[in-house]
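Field: COMPLEX_INPUT
Field: COMPONENT_COUNT = two
Field: RESIDUE_TOTAL = 580
Field: MODE = joint
Values follow.
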Amino acid sequence: MSPLRGAAVMVEKELLELRRSPVLLLSMISLPITIVLMPLGLYAWLMRAAPEQAVDFLRDLYGIAGEGGKAAALAALLAKNWLPMFLVLPIFLPILIAAQSVGGERERRTLEPLLATPVTTLEIILGKSVAAVVPSVLLTWIAAAIFCGGIDALALPHLPPGSPAPLPDGSWLFATGVLSPLLALFGNAIAVVLGSVVADPRAAQNLAGMTVVPLLGALVAQLAGRVSLGWRFYFALALAALVADIALVALAARLFDREKLLTRWR
Amino acid sequence: MPAIEATGLAKSYAGRRALWDLSFSVERGEVFGLLGPNGAGKTTTLRILAGLISPDAGRAQVAGCEVRPGSPAGAALRGKIGLLTEQPGFYDRLTARENLVVFGKLQGLTAHEADARASRLLSRFLLAPHAARPFAVLSRGMKQKLAIARALLHEPEIILLDEPTVGLDPEATREVRALVGELAAEKRTLVLCTHHLDEVERLCARAAFVAGRLLAVHDVQKMAHGAHRVRLELDSPLDGALALLRGLPFVRAATPERAQTLLLELAGRAHAPDALAALVASGARVLSAVPVRDPLEEAYLALLGQARSEGLIS
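Field: COMPLEX_OUTPUT
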């Protein structure tokens, strides 16, 4: 059996299980829905209720000039400030899947029959990783597309005719196109590593979930007007994620020791 | 060349010895029993033979593949082994058929082959009406039958069965034993790991008694078809009875045990009424006639006693 075929069977199995897990699916979908609807609702309300006051407030807080009118100013603010939430998504979503998929195999006693097949360690890790990363990145892209489309739909009627759509700008394209997959790999690798060393899959999931805290901290700091996350930050984050991904994948491959996984929690 | 040839296998977990100096061989087409109490190292032995873990010492040839310390056997060995694990271990949300197909594909079968073999095994094991039901809702017996079906999916050279009837109700136990019996009748190479003596007696040609190390290997069928022993208690002198019994052609031995009891060894169970009738006809008064435990049980308990006295098991 070629390595890709074994991994493909693992992906097929993982996705089939995911499709049959309504609670997991609901938790995966609810986060992007909240992240998309909340700012769009706020934007729509601000544009209708108190656009002038909102722009004044934003000008004071963030120093946004408001060129191009109130709609462009608000759209730019939301685009800038809400972007980190779309980076939390690709980390968090694979953790939901991957922590359960490694620790869950052990908990449901499916690990021994799985390891008794000719499928290799690499195929198992690869299959589980693809099944966790691909849906997470796709969901992030769909959520980002809806968010950008929503902002544009709400902003464009208030912008001068012929104005370009505010989103996606360069930051958004880089963040979703480059950074999201790297962060999804990071979330998945963290979950695989913790799922391999922590006996309880829920504990592994909770621990892995803690990795989004620094990013949430950056988001809060930006919302409070303390920092301004720009190109340099996202580029540095991408580099850091790339290095972490390589290190974590190597660590995961070492920790995913078939014999230890079977006998450690006897 | 034997299907399995294990020599001096040893394994420890975190400094605790689970298995040491275990040697035995299993011929092709033989049903071999691994008997022993809980914690005797039976599952560890099966895991080594299945290529799931590597031994700390010793080596084994399994289906032509080498198992050695420090180098876990590769995919080639795992593809030749059908392993029934102690717990069925399937994916709860997948149906019985989907589970079989997934494991078939993981064994290297094409989608079409996996589906066809799953259908055939589901029918054979009377699981076809439950094929579309999620694994989680199947009864314990159905789950175990499905697990046996999985062990056969890729038509392995050797089938390793770890406690196939543990935790099953009497009806499911009977069904699973019948299935294992069918496999044995097909002359497949089977290693049956259990602590149910009747399973071993019914299915196995030979059995190894294990308690950390190998205590003995017995020819089960020879034992089962050997002498039938009856303990007799008489209310009359033994001398006359012993002389009479020793003169009967089907009596192998008659041995006094206590003042009024003797142990009678017959050529077969069918001769017990004849021996008793001859005694009664001679005027002897028989107070009781109790069959002695079957030889396998006797041997098992004796070996357990030996293992306890040697500190091999607690």
